[in-house]
Design brief:
Structural class: mainly alpha
Number of helices: 15
Distance between the termini: 36 Å
Organism: Cellulomonas humilata
Number of strands: 0
Keywords: Cell membrane, Membrane, Transmembrane, Transmembrane helix
Pfam families: MFS_1
Strand content: under 5%
CATH architecture: Up-down Bundle
Membrane topology: Multi-pass membrane protein
Largest sheet: none
Mean pLDDT: 80
Oligomer: single chain
Subcellular location: Cell membrane
Number of domains: 1
Amino acid sequence: MSTDPPTLAPGRPRSLVHHPDFRRLWTGDALGQLGAQLTALALPIFAVQQLAATEWEMGVLTAAEFAAFLVIGLPAGAWVDRMRKRRVLIVADLVRSAVLAAVVVTAATGHASIPLLVVAALVVSAATVFFDVSHQSYIPGLVGLEHLVEGNSKLQATASVAQVAAPAIGGLLLRVIAAPALIAVTVVTYLVSAFAVGRIRHVETPPHPDTRRPLRVEIAEGLRFVVHEPYLRRIVACTALGNFAGAMAGAVTVIYVLRTLNLGTATWGAIVSAGAIGGLLGAVAAGRLAQWIGEGRIIPLSALVMAPASALMPLASTGVVPAPVLLIAGGAAFGFAVIVYNVGQVSFRQRVCPPPLLGRMNASVRFIVWGTVPIGGLLGGGLGTHLGVLPTLWVSVGIMALAAVPVVVSPLLGMRDLPGSPVLDA
């Protein structure tokens, strides 16, 4: 169990800006997000342009980036609950930094290949599983339950700022430097992130080894909680289907933009950045929307926006409206909806779950919702190869529409406050 979270000084504003340990976590997260976004931009471009990746190879690469959630997602939660989460965060940063440094070296020496990128993606995926589970499980003990929405909103806003800035900067830099040079920046940002998290003073006391039970028992407890909590079960179903659809589209999106629509890398970076502005606005607006609409209703309402927004991507090929305009509009709307949805559902998960189960609950949720991503990526690569890129995007839109059904056709649509939520003022 962890010690009580630090409290803000009497008379000081309640904002987490004045929480020293949260500022350190926030700084580390911001640096890691910046580097991760540059890598997310550079890796597929490197694969498509310099390594001539096919639709199937891009599907495999997409699957590798999330494979660990499916393979080790469940035991990772039980392991994290047994460890100091701050230490897990630091080690995960260092592992990701080392692996990406190896990618840069192989690219510089002319030994880069799609199989090497896939292996690197698998290792980074495993480190990311531990980082993400620890990160979400660390927040409640670090800032206290009363600051969860604010903390999650600030972290989501940071991620959105990185999504706006990194692709715009990266797209311009890719005109004059090679993609591996952008990946090298990530090596540095992960190292600095590890340093910032290492300065957190909050002390955790993990459970005594004598209190541990068999791993399968602890894993089953996390899964049982997710399956038996009725609202969480619906949220997980929606998220899993949405991620599956997104992975299908993601496997062929770079090929669609660079080859089918014949847009350059700078334009692609600008499109991603403009779309991420919607996510930033969503992070800023999430708290107020929850107060205005209700923390329960905001989840299905935001899910309803995702399919129409994603449909603008394949519609960009019609030529009726300039393709960048539709891609920018669709990305902005989709990013806004996803971030509002995530702030609401993650905050609910953290409040409704007993603290000793947080790691296992988060791991169980991620096992389900991210475990669909490698499957979706492989299916997207296969469909792109046999049906074509555009039909694959339309299939993804259809599945995205189905994803909203579990939360829309449910009591969530009529609920203002969710169980475990503080009462929201109208």
